[in-house]
Amino acid sequence: MSGDAGLESTPARSWVTPGLLVLSLVLVMSVSLMAGPQWFGFGKLWHALWSPSPTNVDDLLIRTTRLPRTLLAAVVGASLGVAGGIMQTLTRNPLAAPGLLGVNAGALFAVVALATMGGGLPAAVANLGAFVGAALAVALVWSLAMRRGPTAGPLRLLLAGAALTALFHAFSQALLVVDQQGLDSVLFWLAGSVAGRPLTDTWPMLILALVALLACVPWLSQWNVLAAGEAVAVGAGVSVRRLQLASITLIVLLAGASVSMAGNIAFVGLIVPHIARRLATPDHRHWLPLAALIGAVLLLCADIAARTLIPPGEVPLGVMTALVGAPFFMLLVRRQGVRHG
Question: Can you tell me where the transmembrane regions are (predicted)?
Fold first, then answer.
């Protein structure tokens, strides 16, 4: 039993949506490079990318500020979209998102703890600390939720994640109350942003996220089987425990790298998988790659809006995603309530 029966679509239609999304991604990335307090035309963009002048201020702005920002937004959006899709498959809960495993809370607590030690917080140290904090939080959630017993499983995973998320937030707030000078160092993580993040500080996490996205490919077919239920997966010869561990590891790598690069970006991991499933068949080989493209396009659009709505200032990127995601989340909750009412 492969679990893929009935999930195929015609070859002609299967390429239409991915093709349009790839074109949309290229277009939005181009707009991202041109947009800001000072807008540039396509000619200036082409010159800056392919024949830059070392003394031209506009070329330097595009290459050293807007290009890293665009790349980060695209990779973070793709990573969060895929991580959210894996999370919803793993827990079989359409309202699940990576933050429910304590990823964001663990990263924030690690950054706050480092900031309160004094002596400044270098960006590279903050990035690494955020990733380690996210990974440790998820490892703790997994160890608590998946111990052998009658209640072990997806529901216990979500409950353990919610409890530890609240605990980590309480610890972070307590540290900030004790040392309020550390608040300035963590505002970036609280609001979420891809601004002012040079590639010299973020390239290790950027590469890690890209590698994790590629590492999802071998598991796509097995996620199809897991989505039908653990009993079906066991009957199909799938090692459920091994698949769950691989899924959690990929969620940690994708969401942990994202939060270390961009801070707390809410709702992307929640809403993107739902959009992707509406545009494709239920086959993970179809909709999960779409989730990567949609996540990248969505976060790039949010970042463009964040830097152009109130020039010369900026709206925090996490606020922009919340403005879109919160109504979507309430709609999902309402539909789930109607379905089970």
Answer: 15-35, 71-90, 96-117, 124-145, 157-178, 199-220, 248-275, 287-309, 315-333
pLDDT at 7: 47
Burial class (CB in 10 A: 0-12, 13-18, 19+), 43: exposed
Give the span between the Cα atoms of 79 and 260, in whole angstroms. Answer: 12
DSSP result, 138-166? HHHHHHHHSSSSTT-SHHHHHHHHHHHHH
Structure tokens at 294: 């949609």
Q: Which two tokens stand for residue 63?
A: 């290459």
Quick one: tokens of 50?
A: 């392919």
| Regions of the chain where pLDDT drops below 50 | 1-12, 338, 340-341
Distance of alpha carbon 142 from alpha carbon 146, whole angstroms: 6
- Between CA 188 and CA 261 the distance in angstroms is 10
What class has domain 11-340? Answer: mainly alpha
3-state secondary structure of 259: helix
The C-alpha atoms of residue 100 and residue 159 are separated, in whole angstroms, by 9
Residue 57's contacts (CB-CB under 8 Å, 6 or more residues apart) are none
The HSE-up count of residue 119 (CA atoms within 13 Å, CB side) is: 5
Nearest partner of 304 among 45, 78, 66, judged by Cα? 66
144-191 pLDDT per residue, tens: 877 655 555 677 888 888 899 999 989 888 888 877 666 666 777 778
User: Whole-angstrom Cα distance, residue 221 to residue 227?
Assistant: 10
Structure token digits, residue 80: 């969060």
DSSP 66-129: IHHHHHHHHHHHHHHHHHHHHHHHHHT-TT--GGGGTHHHHHHHHHHHHHTTSS---HHHHHHH
User: Helix 268-279 to helix 284-308 angle, to the nearest 10 degrees?
Assistant: 130
Is 0.85 topped by the overall pTM?
yes
Q: Token pair for residue 265?
A: 């970006």
- Cα 319 to chain centroid, rounded: 15
Rounded to 5°, angle at Cα 282 from 278 and 283 = 130
